[in-house]
Amino acid sequence: HRKYVAFEPVRKTDRRWPDQVIRKAPDWCAVDLRDGNQALVKPMTVAQKTRLFDLLVKVGFKEIEVGFPAASQPDFDFCRRLIEEDRIPSDVYIQVLTQARPELIARTFEAVKGAPNVVVHVYNSTSTVQREKVFRMDREGVKEIAINGARIVKSHADKDPDTNWIFQYSPESFTGTELDYAREVVDAVNDVWRPDQGQPVVINLPATVEMATPNVFADQIEWINDNVRYRDHFRISVHTHNDRGCAVAAAELAVMAGADRVEGTLMGNGERTGNMDLVTMAMNLYSQGVDPRVDLSGMAEITDVVEACTEIATHPRHPYAGELVFTAFSGSHQDAIRKCLAQYQEGDQWEIAYLPIDPRDLGRRYEEVVRINSQSGKGGVAYVLERDYNISMPRWLQIEFAREVQQTAELDGGEVDSETVHRLFGDRYLAV
Ligand code: KIV
Ligand code: ZN
Predict the structure, then answer these.
(1) Which ligand is nearest to the CA of 207?
(2) How many of the other CB atoms lie within 10 Å of CB of 194?
(3) Could you tell me the pLDDT band of residue 10, with boundaries at 50, 70 and 90?
(4) C-alpha angle 150-238-12 in degrees, rounded to nearest 5
(5) What positions does the entry give for Mg(2+) binding (predicted)?
(6) Is the dihedral of CA 288, 290, 291, 292 positive or negative?
(7) Phi and psi dihedrals of 277, rounded to 5?
(8) ipTM score of the complex?
């Protein structure tokens, strides 16, 4: 029995992506403490970072990018605190970002000394515009930076065999990079790291700036997937930003096109319009019967901690997490929800009109679903009286009383709470 049912592809097209649905959750990497943090008006304190780290662990993330320690003293101190206070569970990898420069890589290795499991994430920018206008370098020069970075990472790690190392390389601004050149750089990095000889490697392909529709990004991922060396021996990761509002869609299509891993942040905090929202993508999988391999059932705690650490409020319409996303004010929606819920029994497949998932799966309550204002109708008013006061009305009374509640709401201009509905009902029908 499955509460949520996966969609099957309706038709096979000539798309080359191997699949048109996601059947298994990708590996996740939460970058809230690095990409999310670097975009905040007020970067997190060490105490805030620690609180958010503990939440990410509790939710179940196994790879967590904790900072850019060579670029920021608080990030360095945070790494040391995590390690010295023994806060990192044995099945969790902390990830640290560094540019491909010798002194920065050396400082990064200092920051993570003594950690059991570390992803060293080295990057350099490869796009045409960065090569030509920022670095004024040719393709070979930029490729050399990546190869050198890879060599230095390897030589530091070789000296410290007590840590389990994963090496990660990002050609930053991948979406602005010629594909054949991106592949050349990735192959060159892997020639140094040799994932085929047992070294765990992640190649992370970022939409540093989202520049095209998600299908174009997925085509790029598919092309790399099909054309790189050592493909069976390393994970392809994607790291999408939300400039066109499609970061989640791009990551989803990228997984269909062959990506194994997705980086993002809770609620999508991150540079500019943000990073890919882990909550939305994980819950999208969940709602189609795919185990997301993270536990988002404590959504209230998740939004509380994220808001306290980022000092950014959750939008009331944020998918799965916002205050209003399981609320129906309008009469026809309320009526349909009420009828479906009346027929629903625990253990049934979830088929409730206007509610894509059961709000209780996120720790939310049915009480939030039906709320009354001037847009509401008889179904909503009847639902509230039944739910909160065990009063059921015949249909003619529902119609009559709903009109009265609607008039009150129109006069007030706002929401009519359940106590007021009950009082109006008492005044009109129960007064002695
Ligand atoms: O957006 C980006 O390209 C990044 C890289 C450092 C992975 O954050
Ligand atoms: Zn980023």
Answers:
(1) 1
(2) 14
(3) low
(4) 135
(5) 35, 239, 241, 275
(6) negative
(7) -85, 115
(8) 0.99
Residues 379-408 have pLDDT tens digits of 999 999 999 999 999 999 999 999 999 999
Ligand 1 centroid vs 59 CA: distance in angstroms? 23
User: Nearest 10 degrees: CA dihedral of 212, 213, 219, 225?
Assistant: 80
Beta carbon of 109 within 6 Å of any ligand 1 atom: no
274 alpha carbon to ligand 2 midpoint, in Å?
Answer: 8
Would you list which residues are annotated within the binding site for Mg(2+)?
35, 239, 241, 275
Task: Provide the whole-model pTM.
Answer: 0.94
Cβ–ligand 1 contact at 172 (below 6 Å) = yes
Instruction: Say how far apart CA 361 and CA 374 lie, in whole Å.
Output: 29
Query: Are the CB atoms for 362 and 296 separated by under 8 Å?
Result: yes
CA dihedral of residues 360, 361, 362, 367 (deg, nearest 10): -10
Q: Is the pLDDT of residue 432 over 60?
A: no
Instruction: Give the residue carrying structure tokens 């503990």.
Output: 54
Q: Looking at residue 267, what DSSP letter applies?
A: G
Residue 369 main-chain phi, psi, to 5 deg: -70, -55
